[in-house]
Amino acid sequence: MNTSIQNLKDKLDRTVSIWIEGLEQYDHGQLYRKVNQDSWSIGQVYEHLIEETYYYLGQIEECLSGNKHATENMSKVLREWFLQNSFPDKRLKGPPDLPEPHQPESSTALQH
Prior knowledge:
Radius of gyration: 16 Å
Number of domains: 1
Helix content: 55-70%
Mean pLDDT: 86
Low-confidence stretches: none
Distance between the termini: 25 Å
Strand content: under 5%
Order of helices and strands: HHHHH
Number of strands: 0
Largest sheet: none
């Protein structure tokens, strides 16, 4: 495996470990509690992170297998996030058509 790809995989593995360790700080009620009708619970945020990670890993595989979209540009907002290597330090709101993630069965289910 290419060393830069291996480095990225190692970083992702460390990030996932941090997410799993973070679950230990929430009890059952905290995992499912929504601050308001329009927000997600911590459990739903975890579900979203897991689902999106799988989606983007598939996108990475597609990028590595060819150059189908090589001439396209990122949106201005996404380019800023990419260059900063992080999301902005503020609450994000997804598009209105984004389906709400389901509540996880348990914190243990999120770890698998």
